[in-house]
Structures are given as C-alpha cells and as structure tokens.
Amino acid sequence: RNAAIGLARGRKEGLVSLRGPRGGGVVVTRLLKWPGGKLMLNADAAKGELKVRVSDATRKVIPGFDYTDCEPFTGDSTALEMKWRGQSLDALAGKELRFEFFLREADLFTFRADTSK
C-alpha cells in the first residue's frame, strides 16, 4: 500500500479571474452604487498592465478618472489600492457608476470597496 499526504495552496480569493489578452481588453461592470472609500483589487499584472477608469450610467468618463489619470499597475497583489492622480473615489460616494478595467496580459480576480478609514 502507498499513502501520501499533500498540501495544495491557492491564491486568496483567486480561484477564477478575468484575463486580458496580449493586445489588451476591457471589462465593464454593471452600474453600481458606489459606497465610497478605496477601490481595492486582487490582481496579477506582473507580465502586463492593468488600468481602471470610472464612468457614469451612460458610460461617459467621469473627469479625473480616465485611464490617463489612473496610476497603472504592473505587479501582483491581493490588496491593491487603485489610484488616480489627485482624485479620490470618496468624492463619488452614493453615485451610480461603472468601472472599466483595461487588462493587458493581466488577471483580475476580485474588486471591492474599502470604506474603512
């Protein structure tokens, strides 16, 4: 008889991801009522790039929250805070908006609002 014990480890909250192709792709969320706080991601863009823009119900980009304003991410993190130059998502608390994730050779596992101070 043979017996064995093994240990498998997985990424926290990382069973399934949205993956962007080599040329890049965009994933758009449904309309969300933003509670305020920070946009936190679990993502792996170590071989690519991830950026986020914020738009309204008609998909018009909210000024200051376009891809060109976003600080691009090129690493691997389970607790990434997305940032836009000089802007805070707290200013959009209570508004209905969409997140448009640009993924180039990147995996997006989860996103959430962090309303803790």
Account of the protein in words:
By secondary structure, the protein is mostly beta strands. The protein has one domain (25-114): Jelly Rolls, CATH 2.60.120. It has strands at 18-19, 25-28, 32-33, 38-44, 49-55, 76-81, 96-104, 107-114. Strands 1-8-4-6 form a 4-stranded antiparallel β-sheet, with no helix packed on it. Strands 2, 3, 5 and 7 form a 4-stranded antiparallel β-sheet that branches.
Under CATH, the topology can be stated as Jelly Rolls
What are the secondary-structure elements, in order, as H or E?
Answer: EEEEEEEE
Share of residues in strands: 35-45%
N/C terminus separation: 56 Å
CATH class: Mainly Beta
Helix content: under 10%
For the report, how would you describe the main beta sheet?
A: 4 strands, antiparallel
Rg, Å, rounded: 16 Å
Number of helices: 0
Q: In one word, what is the shape?
A: globular
* Count of discrete structural domains: 1
Mean pLDDT: 91
Write the CATH architecture name.
Sandwich
* Sheet/helix structural class: mainly beta
Strand order of the largest sheet: 1-8-4-6
